[in-house]
Amino acid sequence: MPEQRLFLERRSYRMRRMMDAIRLLPVLGLCLWLVPVLWPRSADDADAAISTSTALMYIFSIWMGLGLISWVLWLRTRRSVAGQSDQSTVFDTPEPR
Amino acid sequence: MVALNQLVLVCLVYVAGLFMVAFIAERAALRGRIGWFLRSPLIYTLSLSIYCTAWTFYGAVGYAARSGLEYLTIYIGPSLVMIGWWWILRRLVRIGRSQRVTSIADLISSRYGKSNLLAFIVTVMAVIGVTPYIALQLQSVVLSLSIFAANGEGGSAAFNPATAALWVAVGLAAFTLLFGTRNLNVNERHHGVVIAIAVEAVVKLIALVAVGIFVVWGLAGGLSETLARIDASAIGTWEVQGSRWATLTFLSAAAFLCLPRMFQVMVVENDDERYLQIASWAFPLYLILISLFVVPIAVVGLDLMPEGSNPDLFVLSLPLSQGQNGLAMLSFMGGFSSATSMVIVATLALSTMVSNHVVMPVWLASRQDGAMQSGDVRYVLILARRLSVLMIIALGYVYYRISGGGGALAAIGTISFGGVAQFLPALMGGIFWRGATRVGALWGLSVGFALWVFSMLLPSFGIDGALSRDTFEQGLLGLAWLRPHALFGIEGLDPTVHAVVWSLSLNTLAFVMASLLSFPTPLERLQGAQFVNVLNHSIPAQGWSASVAGSEDLMIMAQRILGATEAQAFFAREARAQGIDGILPEPTPAFVQMLERQLAGAVGAATAHAMVSQIVGGTSVSVQDLLAVADESAQMLEYSSQLENKSRELSETAAQLRLANEKLTQLSLQKDGFLSQISHELRTPMTSIRSFSEILRDAATLSPEDKTRYASIIHSETIRLTRLLDDLIDLAVLENGQVSLHVAEERLSDILDRAIITSLAGAKIPIEVSRSPDAEDYVLRTDLDRLVQVFINLITNAQKYCVADTPALRISVARAGDQLHIDFVDNGTGIAGDVQAVIFEKFYRITGSEGEGAGLGLAICAEIMARLGGAVQYLPGHGGAGFRVVLSVTSIVAQVEKNDLNLAI
After folding, report:
1. Exposed e or buried b for every residue in B386-418, given b needs 16+ CB within 10 A?
2. Each residue of B116-135: pLDDT tens digit?
């Protein structure tokens, strides 16, 4: 690993955090989309059941929201993502041999 | 009403139009004129919509009508994968580019050490897994046709679903053959097909959205009314089981990654990694639009359509029932598009896998001679592709016929998803975990696949279809824990959840366990490192622009290897041949191949290929490339080491010659020196003889004493002269080989006694001689007088030249193999290294040494020993001067035996 600086300029710092957001976005989506698992079903309790229109709006809002955030992140990061190598984000620590 | 024939005609025109689009795109790609449009992120995103097949188009509405919002899981999973492109897809695309991966089977097999067995298994699994999916497309097209037939003039009696399915299958096969297998592309890319499916993506989206708008605003009366209607309908409340929701979301995400056709458009056909990020928001958008109107259509369909009508066909039957023939036609085209594009891409992807991993290995193994032309292979490969296409579509048709064409579309689709999702552990393990091994992948895939077949595929043929009722109730072979819907005795689970959870978890478990317990081959470990660390050592794929810039890079590289003038001439010649002004030709495949051949002449084929493909293809060098390069380098190394050897031999010879020359020069100097010496030696006694004889002649009065004295001086001087002349004659005789040997036998110790006594007789201070009588117990058979002469000479030399305060001489005798060594070592200063080489030469006298002698003694010794079949050598490194007399094999071996005999007596 080449030596890395501990602190970055403001610009690169912002860029890193946006890359973090790109990475975390699917996790957020997954969490929100798993909420329906907790909803009461009509089979269990007919009165408490969530109506389909509400459910539709919830699920599609998340969908649009994720798409929108993804789009904004693309607008903000598209210049740097293309040329970026993965040096900054060490997912793969080499195996000790 | 729309007549069936009319419908078929429209379909044919539509297909012909698609084919034209594909053909034009293919032509443009072949000429290397790929515009921005053909390779834009838009086309890439639209091509991903191959995910939305007839299952989506027809089946989603049916799914919603039956199970409410559960259908959304099928689109939520892929959306998450796309939004999370940074994690998995980016790696896959990078690996696909750098390893020149052609299919998912290729990826998995090359990750696990280019295992053919693994590729074969993945291919077979993919074919079996996708077969229900293709059957689903056939079924949907047939169903949609049947709707028109039922409403048309002919009535449903004239419409035979089986025949229709056969015709649809034949049509699809012909279309696929025309599209995808007309030529071979090294990268398995099909620009024409991609454009065609992009067009179809637009058609199906427009069709579904159009029907949706018609339903919401035309039939339901607006947005709020539609929502109210939804809540009032049979699917008005949330009724999805949590387990199914989570499982199906996961399953669709897994299938999105593992489906061969998705892999084809997402990874293999990807031109630019940046498109992924655009697709990360654009593709979810497409999915939103596709699934937005599904629930309204389902709800309105349930309301308006008569009881018992197939909800899978609401998209089509709803407009038809309202007399919207144009819209129905558009809707039919949308469904037809979805089905055809899926079948084409899926069969292309599968046929690539089948021909590369099943047919070609078998064909190559069956040909032992191995002498084949490249055209030969191409022909076989194309034929294999075409046969595979036919076989895959035929399998789909057979599945359709066997399953009876009755199942809900969504159920069939889930079965397919479950099958291909079995690749997931091996795939993810392969790109994230270096410890994943081939054995692990084999175990995981086998376990998962077996469970899928038993708990999902076979039950899909119905009770008493592929599995008997007994198997369902009592378990396989009567084992209760082997019931297809209650494995290991766990009951009450939803069948889909049950099958997916069991097959994938045990698949993963087997994969991890076997990986942990097995040891990978070196190639596997190399590939594993390359795959897992792909982001660290590869550049992002930057699309066509990188290849255009390639010409200049190629030029720079070629100049380095071929030399500037030659490279420029070659490039200019090629540019002229392409009809381009200037010196840089377009990097067409033909040109690149020519260049590679040129370079291969200089650096070897493998190296040239690796260099060129790195510039042109942006691929990283594979392990096989490296091995080939290493091979070549080894050959070059060997050649250069041969040259080195030769040059070393030459320089050694030169050194020897130089040494010989030095010796000659020195000898010549010695001779000159000796001639003046010998003149002096001769002159001195001559002078005294002349002067004393003149005195005797001229002096009248001489006392008798003086007379006697002078006469004895003259006498002794003549003796000296005679001795000198004797030595010279002796040497001359020895050198000319005229000497005759008088062979006799005597003990070595006696010979030495004699020599020592003779040498030291009359010496003022005799040198102290030490011996080891035990070692001298040999009887020699040789010319004893000559040998004694040698010994005397050596002892006398020690006596004369040893300058130690108490001079001592050690005489030691030793056997060394077949030789007898007799060493004479004194304790003097020895002889300097530079003159050791010449002391045995004639006339050599050590300068600065005292004593008389003409420098012939050692030369005579050397000659004598040569005559006796032995040698006399100088022994360096013994303190003083040391000489070794070596007695040769023949005489000694005989003597030793005799010696032994003597001892025995």
Report:
1. bebbbbbbebbbebbeebebebbbbbbbbbbbb
2. 888 899 999 999 888 888 88
